[in-house]
Write a structure and sequence with these properties.
- The complex is a heterodimer of chains A (about 325) and B (about 300).
- Chain A has 13 helices and no strands.
- With about 325 residues, chain A is mainly alpha-helical.
- Chain A has one domain.
- Chain A is globular and about 65 Å long.
- The two termini of chain A are about 30 Å apart.
- In chain B, the strands form two sheets. Chain B has a two-stranded antiparallel ribbon with strand order 1-4. Chain B has a two-stranded antiparallel sheet with strand order 2-3.
- Chain B is built from eleven helices and four strands, in the order H-H-H-H-E-E-E-H-H-H-H-E-H-H-H.
- Chain B has a domain of about 200 residues.
- The model of chain B has no long low-confidence stretch (mean pLDDT about 90).
- With about 300 residues, chain B is mainly alpha-helical.
- The chains are: A mainly alpha (about 325), B mainly alpha (about 300).
């Protein structure tokens, strides 16, 4: 079996194990762990768009909201009819949740196609603005749909999100992004980022690469939205405004654009950091923003942008010197 | 007809405020090519300076109002220059995205320090200008609206003069056109950029006071939404283009006011972005902008 697939299965197994013992973990830590997992999905999927393909998107929260609303609508409206009065067994609930998450992801991916095809002709700041605009428009639409709770949002979403679901999908996201980028086809993402004109000149369809990256990113954002909704149990349109998008972008940039391990570390750090700073609650956000500025000034290529293969080979030389 | 004129007037005063903010965005974009996200928070600081200085001065007089306005402009100019010097200058020439993130960080920093210093609860803004209401054939004209429009017009004429009639303004246009060539002919690019930030931030400060006059409740997050809309206005007019920013802001103010008065009022906040997307798809350079061919 190929190595990445083994890693994926191992991660799912570990997630299942942790989830199995979740009753023994302090609920607060469990909350933080779940939040970290959801942010990993968001940051890694956005990294495919912003980091590997170099298309600066500020609309990730918009896709997240599509997934959150769609999947919540399925489990809340269709759920009772499918499961019946008894509420169904755990397996039935799990299958319903899985279906809801996938539908949410597909809905977000569809929104990604609709947004991506017109806007990906634009570049840089303009693309950032258009994606921001689409994210805000999606939010305003949700605010105006009374069937989805309007400005008040949806309440009473069933509590289906567990560590198992979150980390299985986080592993799947990492697996998909890493395999996609390493594949022969996927070299085109990086080529599009590095030099769009040159890539076109050698016959790559850069627009298609951008759209594929965008749609895959949107799919996982939608899944993350679904997990988020069934974790927080209530969703409001304002929870998915552009501050949320910026939060995800910051994770990608601190981790180092196009550097999946770094982005995962940054997602963990930026989710845990506000919790640690809760002791100095008043200064929390001030410190967070200051940290952001200082990091950009001091480590402009991202906090965790190490050359991993160089570190690995240095360690190898140290512990297994050649010729011994 | 009266209602139409009334909406036109409301739209004009809203557009005038957007214009003051949009000018700062567009000038900074012109010389440095990045979106200064912190600009909308400089606007907020302007409103707060107006609030505190206005509290010290006699209310309801023209001179008191103008003094508060001037104080806000001066304070914001200093703030803008300091931000540029401490935060943006070390990153100059770096990747665009890093500058963008730093700008976002700066914006968050101003918002949250604002909440720390001023508190998160909204405050009522004092009526620092004479608050009179003139009724003209059913048309209600408040003095505040007149003040907003007149002050904005004066500032914009002043800006036009500063950019086209002074030496530093000429230098600014030169830097916007080609920073390297500008340096070669002996323009001190640091001074020009500081000047641009000062000028843009002063206009945002004035915008903050005028906005607070018309919507008399201020809080540390008040800048976010007007800031975004003003940026949309700048793009609409052609980012980097000063008359374009003013034109875009007026159009946006009008459209928003008319949508607000119609039965689609709940979609008011989406309109600005719908316009933005439309303009970027069909005329990416903006209404008055010029296309630049990409060099390979």
């Amino acid at each position: 079996m190929p190595k990445p697939l083994i890693a994926l299965l191992a991660a799912v197994l570990v997630a299942f194990g942790v989830s199995y013992f979740s009753d023994h973990i302090d609920p607060y830590y469990l909350d933080v762990i779940t939040g970290v997992g959801i942010n990993i999905i968001l940051a890694v999927s956005l990294n495919l768009v912003n980091g590997y393909t170099g298309q600066f998107s500020l609309g990730h929260a918009g896709f997240m909201s599509v997934g959150a609303y769609l999947s919540a609508a399925i489990t809340m409206l269709a759920g009772p009819r499918i499961l019946g009065d008894s509420g169904g067994t755990a397996v039935q609930q799990g299958l319903l949740f899985l279906g809801a998450l996938l539908v949410g992801g597909l809905g977000a991916a569809l929104a990604g196609v609709a947004v991506g095809i017109p806007s990906l002709r634009l570049k840089g700041d303009y693309l950032a603005l258009v994606t921001l605009g689409f994210g805000e428009i999606i939010r305003v639409i949700f605010q105006n749909v009374d069937a989805l709770g309007g400005a008040l949002g949806l309440n009473g979403i069933p509590n289906y999100t567990t560590v198992f679901w979150v980390y299985s999908f986080a592993a799947l996201t990492v697996f998909t992004v890493v395999c996609l980028v390493r594949s022969t086809y996927g070299r085109g993402f990086v080529a599009t980022r590095d030099d769009e004109v040159a890539s076109e000149a050698v016959g790559l369809n850069t627009t298609r690469y951008k759209i594929v990256a965008f749609v895959v990113g949107a799919f996982f954002a939608g899944v993350a939205g679904g997990l988020y909704g069934h974790f927080k149990l209530t969703i409001t349109p304002t929870g998915f405004d552009f501050t949320k998008s910026i939060e995800i972008v910051v994770m990608v940039i601190l981790g180092g654009m196009g550097n999946t391990p770094g982005v995962i570390l940054a997602a963990i750090l930026l989710t845990v950091l506000p919790e640690v700073l809760r002791a100095v609650d008043e200064y929390r956000m001030v410190l967070y923003s200051l940290l952001l500025i200082v990091l950009m000034l001091v480590r402009p290529k991202g906090l965790f942008n190490f050359d991993y293969s160089a570190i690995a080979s240095r360690l190898r030389r140290k512990f297994w010197p050649a010729g011994s | 007809m009266t209602e139409f004129l009334q909406q036109l007037l409301n739209g004009l005063s809203l557009g005038a405020i957007y214009a003051l903010i949009a000018l700062g965005y567009t000038m900074v974009y012109g010389v440095l090519r990045f979106i200064n996200f912190a600009h909308s928070d400089v606007f907020m600081v302007g409103a707060f300076i107006g609030y505190f200085v206005g509290g010290l001065l006699p209310h309801g007089t023209f001179w008191g109002g103008l003094a508060a306005l001037a104080a806000a402009m001066a304070g914001c100019a200093v703030l803008g220059i300091v931000i540029e010097r401490l935060v943006y200058r070390p990153l100059r020439g770096g990747p665009t995205l890093n500058v963008l993130i730093t700008a976002i960080g700066m914006s968050l920093f101003l918002e949250y320090s604002g909440q720390l210093v001023f508190g998160a609860t909204p405050r009522a803004f004092p009526a620092i200008f004479p608050a009179k209401v003139i009724s003209l054939h059913g048309l209600i004209i408040s003095m505040n609206q007149v003040t907003v429009i007149v002050v904005a017009a004066v500032l914009m004429v002043g800006l036009q003069f500063a950019v086209h009639g002074t030496k530093i303004g000429t230098a600014m246009r030169a830097v916007a056109l080609n920073p390297k060539a500008a340096q070669l002919v002996g323009i001190n690019i640091d001074v020009v950029i500081s000047f641009t930030f000062g000028l843009g931030s002063a206009l945002a400060g004035a915008g903050g006071v005028l906005y607070a006059l018309n919507y008399p409740s201020i809080d540390p997050l008040m800048g976010v939404v007007p800031g975004l809309k003003a940026f949309v206005a700048a793009v609409l007019g052609g980012v980097g283009n000063i008359p374009g920013a003013a034109l875009g802001a007026l159009i946006l103010g009008m459209v928003e006011t008319f949508v607000d008065g119609s039965r689609w009022s709940t979609y008011k906040d989406a309109i600005a972005f719908a316009i933005l997307i439309g303009i970027l798809l069909f005329r990416p350079a903006g209404l008055l902008g010029r296309y630049r061919a990409e060099k390979v």
